[in-house]
Amino acid sequence: MNPLERSLETDDSIIDEQFIRSSDRKFGRWLGTALIVALLGATILGVAAEITLIHLNTTRTQARAVRSDMLSLGALLNTIDDAESSQRGYLLTGNQALLQKYKAAAVAYPDQYQHVVDMLDDDDKATLQALHSKIGHQMSSLQNVLNIDHQSGFDAARAALQADQSRFPAAGVDTSIRDLIASQQARFNVLSAGVSSLNAQVSGIVGVLIAFELILVGVVLWVVIRDQAPRVFAAQELSSQNEDLRSERDDLNSTNDQLEASLKRFESLFRGVPVACYFTGPDGEILEWNSASESLFGFTTNDVRERTIYDTIVRPAGLPKVQSMSDGVMSGQSFDNVEWVCRTREGKEMEVMSNLMPLVGENGHPIGVMTATIDMTERKAVERLKSEFVSTVSHELRTPLTSIRGALGLVCSGAVGQLPEQVKRLCSIANNNTERLVRLINDLLDIEKIEEGGIVFQQVPFSVKELTLNAINAMKGYSQEYNVEIIADLAKDDITITSDPDRLTQVFNNLISNALKFSGSGTAVVVKTVLFQSSVRVSVRDSGPGIPEDFRSRVFEKFAQADSADTRKAGGTGLGLSISRAIMTRLNGRIWFETGNLGSTFFFEVPTDSKEGNRPLDASTKALVCVGDKNFVNTILVLLTQNGIQGHVSYTAQHAKQTLGQEQYDLLIMDAALPDQDGLELLRELRSQKSTERLPIVVVASSNPHGLESIGGDPIVDWIKKPLDSSRFIDSVMHAVTQKTS
Amino acid sequence: MSEETLNKILIVDDEEDIRTVASMALEYGGGFTVAQAGNGQQALTQIPIFKPDIVLLDVMMPGMDGPEVYRLMKLDDYSRTIPVIFMTAKVQPHEVQGYMALGAAAVIPKPFEAMQLAAQVLRIWKENQN
Question: Under an 8 A CB cutoff, do B28 and A445 touch?
Answer without folding.
Answer: no
